Amino acid sequence: MEKRLTISAMLFSVGFVFMLVLAVGAFFFGVQVGSEKIEAKYTAAKAEEEKGKVDDSATPYQQQDLVSFYLTVFSPYREFQTEWLSAMDKLSRGGNVDASSAFKNLSKLASKKAEEASSFNMQKSPLLGDAQVAYIRSMKLFKSAADKAASSKSASHADLFKAVLADSNYKTAVKESLDGQKAYYEAMQKWAATVDINIPAVAKTPDPLSVAKWNAMPITVKNLVIADYLAKQDEMNSFYPHDLTSRVDEFIKSGQASKMKLQTVNGIVELLIGTKAVDFGDFGPNKEQFYASETLPQLPFFYSE
């Protein structure tokens, strides 16, 4: 009887070990199969992602996208920029200004406008998505610069003005805003190429750019050239790129460039900016004279604001 129990116990132990081996084997087999499935799913997802990617140069930009960007991102930023430039101008003149209060208000405005600029998703259009992100980053950095200026212990308005210009947040904010502006004007260029076969989808600009080659360019390319130039200068201005474009064309067509023997657009732009000969709104008076037959999107700043 005792012997029979021992044999039964032995058979039970062997069976248990055998089942344990099968269970462990099944577990590791399941892990391997599961891993392979996950890897296959990941690979398929990556392939689908790559398949879904569209070359930026071939992405269609609809006019409604440009208008939506103007209303939801560009306008909020410009409203903030106008207030910032006004405050900085007053500060530079050393007038009777409560600097701390002014920068506290600018900080609040920057937060508000950054939130407004985030209200509509522009990411389906790569360049507009990039521009949106750049403008939002810009206003957040302006907020940081404003917060620092509001708590500054600078002895005078002049010292505070210099401190703001030297602040790293301010410098990066300006750079981000100019990068956003360039991306927006590049999106306009790509839109124009979809509605006019004579406009190139990709604008390749020689450096230096001769007056002759400039004259042969459509306005959307000229505007992009100027936006690119301004982005490299890292200096914020109240005028639009197309304001400067029109002043360059006016300078050339009036014969001033020829009289001064300026053969490159770079030289003309440097002269106009250096002498503060460009103002906000300069495009309007020249629009009908120079660009009546040009292809431009229906955006308020090309017509009336």
Overview of this protein structure:
Keywords: Membrane, Transmembrane, Transmembrane helix. This protein folds into three domains: 51 residues; 136 residues, no CATH class; 110 residues, no CATH class. Helices cover 72% and strands 0% of the residues. It has twelve helices and no strands. The N terminus is likely disordered.
Brief rundown of the structure:
The chain is mainly α. Helices cover 72% and strands 0% of the residues.
Topology:
Blueprint: H1 2-52, H2 63-93, H3 99-117, H4 126-150, H5 157-166, H6 168-195, H7 211-215, H8 219-233, H9 241-253, H10 256-259, H11 265-274, H12 283-291
Helix pairs in contact: 2-3, 2-4, 2-5, 3-4, 4-6, 6-8, 8-9, 9-11, 9-12
Number of domains: 3
- What is the 3D form? globular
Low-confidence runs (pLDDT<50, min 5 residues)? 1-5, 26-58
Q: How many β-strand runs?
A: 0
Helix fraction, binned, reads over 70%
> N-to-C SSE series?
HHHHHHHHHHHH
Strand residue percentage: under 5%
Rg calculated over all Cα atoms: 31 Å
Average pLDDT over all residues: 85
Question: Gap between N and C termini, in Å?
Answer: 106 Å
Largest sheet: none
Derived from helix and strand composition plus strand pairing, the structural class reads: mainly alpha
Q: In DSSP terms, counting alpha (H) and pi (I) runs of 4 or more, how many helices? A: 12
